[in-house]
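Why should sequence recovery work at all? Because a backbone constrains its sequence more than one might expect. Tight turns favour small or flexible residues, buried strands favour hydrophobic ones, and helices have their own preferences. The token representation captures these environments compactly. In the example below, the structure is given first.
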């Protein structure tokens, strides 16, 4: 009841507002509709996009599947068959939207412009009707449920209740109640609880919404909707890559993907392929799996009550049957197709591919084809593959039998593994593998140690066998326990998968017991350690506990004994290995002195060379030899040396001596205060060393050997015992030396060796040279030079001077300038001639004496011309002479300075002048040569005139009228003219005519006297020609624009190519074509009285006449209902019409005779081509039909400027896309009217409330 009151109040208010403000009712209707549409568009933007995709799917089933795949529409989890979106504004049904309806508020109804003119009356009638009448009116106006949707597409026709309510305009929590029916008799209703799923058949449904009113429950129509149920379908082809499936429109169907069918059945055909049969089966739905049979036209049909998958099999008719043997634990693929039964077919004469994939835990050991093994199997990820030729026999049978085996890593239980501390980890792995792995029961049976990884349980997880746990960690090293848990992991390969197995083993040292056996009474001679060990090994064996000799490597035995002459205790140890245990034994042996020898490397070298090391060699090396060298130098001096730096006290004792043992004999000498020693004192030195060694070793034999050597040397060089020995040195001076060597190791019998060392004087590449050479042929020195000159000589070896050379002698002899004969060892430096002699006696070098003479005094120079008289012909280049100065030896000292004087002038204008530069011009010249410390010399130079005829040819030139000729640019060609004269001739170029008009004249030159005087014959001149050509000028007409009906602008032009435009003639621009209508016209340039000095280029322009812009205002019209329409007129504004023109505009109004406002339409299809509309009419001026009131007549055309059609106004039906859509109705610019309307509305509301309050009382 309250709702009824509110509706009445709203109706009265609206009516009063319309009446007072004179606002058209359609303005209110339009405003309400726009508000509702704006809310709906906000919620349906994404729905519209999805709907457009669904529309394209419906048109073509084949293309539909591809489109859905691209846009994410294939999900079968979405009951609406569309991508689900979140939010209340989303479209859960994925519906197809078309903009052919209007959405009005919360109800769906068509918009009929013809019915809106009576809204005020309709509101008034609603106050007096009951609810049933209201529902009937709504039902009559029911339309499609959405402004943009043509149909709803649902997977299997299913939709949830909440999704349906959302589509029907409800919002969360979806509390509305709805029902639907196909025939308006049998209705289904939404549930009050939960969110059930509803199923719809394809068809058109009526929808109603439940409304609770004061009188009860009413069902209001909210519209109709076409619903399409669709099913997902998938078609797969097997047996041929050429297979194709076509839909009922003969379009290829996408294979191996899902597409949608908007019907309860689907028809298709299958491409026939030669030599193939076709088998088609379908699965899915209540029919389960069934075989499909084509009709007479080859068409297959699928009936849907659920999603369906179709399988098309091409079965070859010319084939070979492939029979598969045991495949219980493997899958067999032929040509990448899984074989699900025992038999399959392949084509004749083809290589088909077989791939066998074992199940987990199994492997393919081999394959036979017709009982013959396949040798070319390839494996990848445990799958076996090979290729086989099918052959040429039709329907033959090939049997393929794979051998499938179960992989097993078999390990033995309760076995003992041999292990000992320090065992090689690889040996340990082998022990475990060979002991634990049961190869007979393991598959693969060819498994090896390289194929596995062996680990043990350390207490801190599985670890490698050589794992060393950190101290404090609760883990143990392998072998620390009596038993160990072992894990063996097979790595696998392309044929076999990895395997693992575990077992527990016992740990025990299972190696063979050993014993070392040493023979008794062993005596060996002292020698090197390796030699003695090899000799001892002859008396030692390693045996087991039963006395059997073991095959051990005796070189690995360890010996421990005091290796010195005498009886010693020997201990021999065997360390054992991974097969045998260790053992040790001890015995007493006798060591006797060994034999030794000393060899001396006798050598002869030249002074400056070094002796080849070693000079003394002991054998064995540890016998240690010392060498004593004595001799006489080339200067007659005695010499002795010995090197004791490499011999230690231990070397002499043959054993380790405390404190002094590692010191050399030279260090012992310094500690004993023996800084120097003579040859005869050597036995005394070694006696002191015996005192240091003590009883550990007896070196008497060494001392005796040294005394024997000294006695020998004393006989060779008497008095040598008193010569001081050079410690640690070798002789370096030229001389002859005796070298004696003695072994000093007490473990060896003393040995002596003697040899000779010779150092010869150096003479190869050794020569005497003067300290300074005299740098002239006659060895002449001035007295001043002699004072600083370095007289005397020296030895040079290989070109290098040797300093401090003894034995060099210098002698001088000669005659002074006064005739005195002189001689001596000092150089003579007064004027005279002398002889200097250099020689050498004794020392380390041998060289031939050298001799030279030298003179002390001054010398004079002379000058000579290369040619005394020189002749030349004039060629423009310099011609000169050459003279040189020479000393007394004829040596060229340098070029003399020259001065030239012309003594035979060729011109009276030139006076004789001396010049140091070589002359160029013709003439006779006196030439004077000058040099220091020499008398001057005179020569003659003659330059004759050029004889050949000279020619000058002037080049031609061309300029444009008004351009100045650059004379420097004129090229001249010459013949027999010197290069230096060309520039002088070039400077005389001149024109013989004027440059003021086009034409030609001569270009000439003049030969200057400075040029002609050097030529015997007159120079010939050939003139050139200067040509002046006309100048190009371009005159371009300026393009311009004008509006139709207006006066043309003044025609102008542009000139380019010249700066002086006054002499070009009379220039004008004229229009080529007649006419003033819209278009483009050519403008031509014309020139009268043209100047002959110019070449004219005349370029045209254009005149563009644009359309005349006008504005058309449609006149408002009014008539009384039932009377004839007045003529429709309009007013032309803007630039206006050109006199005599017609626009060609036609006016009409919207049809209808009810009271109200009607749009007036303007047809411009025949608009005059010379005009264009500046803007569309505003649409505010309407044609109005009013009720008949006193004094109201048809409105007339009051404006004399208005135009009419001249025909009866026609009622025209609006068509989509016409310009009428741009015309708006109503006038909203009435604020005073609105204010009055609001006041009257408030008064009406107060009156109604008061009336109802009185009624209740």
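From this structural description, the recovered sequence reads:
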């Amino acid at each position: 009841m309250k709702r009824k009151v509110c509706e009445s109040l709203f109706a009265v208010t609206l009516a009063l507002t319309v009446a007072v403000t004179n606002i058209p009712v359609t303005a209110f209707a339009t405003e309400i509709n726009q508000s509702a549409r704006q809310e709906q568009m906000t919620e349906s933007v994404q729905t519209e996009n999805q709907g457009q995709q669904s529309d394209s799917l419906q048109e073509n089933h084949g293309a539909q599947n591809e489109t859905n795949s691209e846009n994410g529409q294939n999900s079968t989890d979405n009951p609406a068959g569309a991508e689900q979106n979140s939010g209340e504004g989303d479209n859960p049904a994925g519906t197809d939207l078309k903009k052919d309806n209007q959405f009005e508020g919360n109800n769906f109804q068509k918009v009929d412009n013809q019915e809106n003119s009576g809204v005020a009356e309709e509101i008034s009638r609603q106050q007096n009707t009951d609810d049933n009448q209201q529902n009937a009116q709504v039902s009559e106006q029911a339309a499609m449920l959405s402004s943009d949707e043509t149909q709803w597409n649902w997977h299997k026709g299913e939709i949830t209740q909440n999704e349906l309510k959302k589509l029907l305009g409800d919002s969360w929590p979806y509390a509305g109640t709805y029902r639907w029916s196909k025939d308006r008799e049998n209705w289904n209703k939404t549930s009050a609880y939960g969110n059930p799923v509803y199923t719809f058949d394809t068809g058109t449904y009526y929808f109603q919404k439940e409304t609770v009113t004061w009188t009860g429950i009413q069902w209001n129509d909210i519209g109709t909707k076409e619903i399409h149920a669709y099913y997902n379908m998938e078609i797969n082809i097997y047996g041929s890559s050429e297979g194709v499936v076509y839909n009922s429109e003969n379009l290829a169907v996408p294979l191996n993907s899902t597409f949608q069918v908007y019907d309860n059945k689907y028809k298709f055909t299958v491409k026939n392929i030669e030599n193939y049969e076709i088998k088609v089966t379908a699965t899915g739905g209540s029919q389960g799996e069934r075989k499909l049979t084509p009709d007479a036209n080859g068409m297959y049909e699928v009936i849907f009550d659920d999603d369906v998958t179709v399988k098309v099999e091409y079965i070859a008719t010319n084939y070979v049957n492939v029979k598969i043997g045991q495949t219980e634990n493997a899958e067999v693929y032929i040509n990448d197709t899984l074989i699900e039964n025992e038999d399959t077919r392949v084509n004749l004469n083809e290589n088909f591919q077989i791939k066998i994939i074992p199940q987990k835990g199994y492997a393919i050991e081999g394959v036979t084809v017709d009982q013959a093994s396949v040798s070319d199997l390839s494996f990848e990820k445990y799958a076996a593959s090979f290729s086989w030729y099918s052959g040429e026999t039709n329907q033959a049978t090939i049997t393929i039998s794979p051998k499938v085996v179960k992989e097993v890593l078999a390990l033995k239980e309760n076995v003992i593994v041999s292990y000992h501390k320090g065992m090689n980890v690889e040996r340990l792995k082998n022990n475990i593998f060979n002991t634990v792995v049961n190869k007979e029961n393991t598959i693969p049976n060819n498994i090896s140690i390289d194929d596995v990884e062996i680990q043990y349980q350390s207490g801190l997880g599985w670890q490698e066998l050589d794992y060393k746990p950190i101290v404090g960690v609760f883990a143990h090293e392998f072998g620390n326990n009596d038993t160990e848990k072992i894990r063996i992991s097979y790595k696998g390969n392309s044929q076999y998968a990895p395997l693992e197995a575990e077992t527990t083993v016992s740990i025990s040292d299972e190696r063979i017991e050993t014993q070392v056996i040493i023979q008794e009474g062993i005596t060996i001679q002292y020698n090197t350690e390796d030699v003695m060990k090899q000799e001892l090994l002859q008396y030692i064996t390693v045996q087991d506990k039963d006395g059997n000799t073991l095959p051990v490597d005796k070189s690995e035995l360890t010996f421990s004994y005091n290796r010195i002459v005498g009886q010693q205790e020997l201990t021999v140890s065997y360390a054992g290995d991974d097969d045998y245990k260790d053992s040790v034994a001890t015995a007493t042996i006798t060591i006797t002195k060994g034999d030794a020898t000393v060899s001396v490397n006798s050598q002869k070298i030249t002074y400056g060379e070094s002796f080849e090391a070693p000079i003394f060699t002991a054998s064995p090396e540890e016998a240690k030899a010392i060498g004593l060298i004595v001799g006489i130098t080339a200067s007659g001096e005695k010499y002795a040396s010995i090197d004791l730096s490499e011999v230690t006290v231990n070397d002499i004792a043959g054993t380790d001596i405390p404190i002094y043992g590692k010191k050399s004999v030279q260090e012992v000498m310094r500690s004993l205060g023996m800084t120097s020693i003579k040859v005869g004192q050597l036995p005394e030195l070694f006696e002191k060393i015996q005192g240091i060694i003590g009883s550990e070793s007896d070196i008497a034999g060494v001392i005796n050997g040294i005394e024997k050597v000294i006695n020998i040397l004393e006989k060779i060089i008497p008095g040598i015992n008193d010569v001081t020995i050079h410690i640690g040195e070798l002789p370096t001076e030229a001389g002859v030396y005796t070298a004696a060597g003695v072994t000093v190791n007490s473990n060896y019998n003393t040995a002596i060796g003697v040899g000779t060392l010779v150092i010869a004087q150096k003479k190869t590449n050794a020569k005497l040279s003067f300290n300074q050479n005299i740098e002239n042929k006659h060895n002449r020195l001035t007295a001043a030079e002699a004072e600083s000159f370095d007289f005397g000589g020296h030895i040079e070896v290989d070109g290098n001077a040797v300093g401090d050379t003894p034995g060099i002698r210098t002698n001088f002899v000669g005659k002074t300038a006064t005739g005195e004969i002189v001689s001596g060892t000092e150089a003579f430096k007064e004027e005279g001639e002398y002889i200097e002699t250099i020689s050498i006696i004794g020392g380390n070098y041998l060289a031939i004496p050298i001799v030279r003479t030298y003179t002390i005094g001054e010398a004079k120079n002379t000058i000579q011309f290369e040619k005394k008289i020189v002749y030349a012909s004039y060629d423009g280049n310099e011609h000169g002479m050459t003279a040189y100065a020479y000393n007394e030896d004829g040596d060229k000292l340098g070029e003399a300075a020259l001065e030239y004087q012309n003594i035979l002038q060729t011109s009276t204008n030139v006076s004789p002048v001396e010049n140091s530069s070589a002359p160029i011009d013709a003439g006779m010249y006196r030439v004077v040569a000058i040099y220091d410390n020499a008398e001057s010399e005179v020569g003659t130079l003659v330059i004759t005139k050029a004889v050949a005829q000279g020619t000058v040819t002037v080049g031609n030139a061309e300029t444009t009228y008004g351009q100045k000729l650059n004379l420097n640019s004129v090229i001249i060609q010459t013949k027999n003219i010197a290069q230096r004269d060309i520039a002088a001739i070039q400077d005389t170029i001149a024109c013989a005519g004027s440059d003021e008009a086009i034409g030609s004249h001569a270009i000439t030159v003049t030969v200057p006297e400075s040029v002609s005087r050097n030529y015997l014959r007159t120079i010939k001149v050939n003139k050139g020609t200067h040509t002046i050509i006309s100048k190009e000028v371009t005159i371009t007409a300026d393009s311009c624009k004008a509006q139709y009906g207006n006066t043309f602008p003044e025609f102008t032009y542009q000139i380019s190519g010249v700066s002086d435009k006054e002499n070009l003639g009379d220039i004008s621009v004229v229009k080529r074509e007649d006419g003033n209508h819209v278009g483009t016209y050519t403008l031509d340039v014309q020139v009268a009285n043209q100047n002959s000095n110019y070449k004219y280029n005349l370029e045209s322009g254009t005149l563009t006449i644009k359309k005349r812009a006008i504005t058309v205002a449609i006149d408002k019209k009014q008539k009384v209902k039932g009377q004839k329409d007045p003529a429709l007129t309009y007013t032309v504004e803007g630039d206006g019409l050109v006199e005599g023109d017609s626009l060609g505009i036609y006016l009409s109004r919207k049809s209808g005779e009810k009271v109200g406002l009607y749009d007036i339409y303007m047809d411009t299809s025949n608009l005059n081509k010379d005009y264009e509309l500046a803007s569309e009419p505003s649409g505010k001026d309407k044609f109005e039909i009013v009720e008949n009131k006193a004094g109201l007549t048809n409105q007339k055309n009051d404006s004399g400027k208005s135009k009419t059609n001249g025909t009866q106004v026609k009622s025209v039906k609006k068509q989509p896309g016409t310009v009428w859509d741009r015309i708006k109705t109503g006038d909203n610019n009435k604020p005073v009217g609105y204010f009055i309307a609001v006041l009257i509305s408030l008064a009406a509301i107060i009156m109604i409330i008061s009336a109802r309050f009185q009624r209740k009382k």
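A few observations help interpret the result. Confidence is low (pLDDT under 50) at residues 1-144, 906-911, 1196-1201, 1206-1234.
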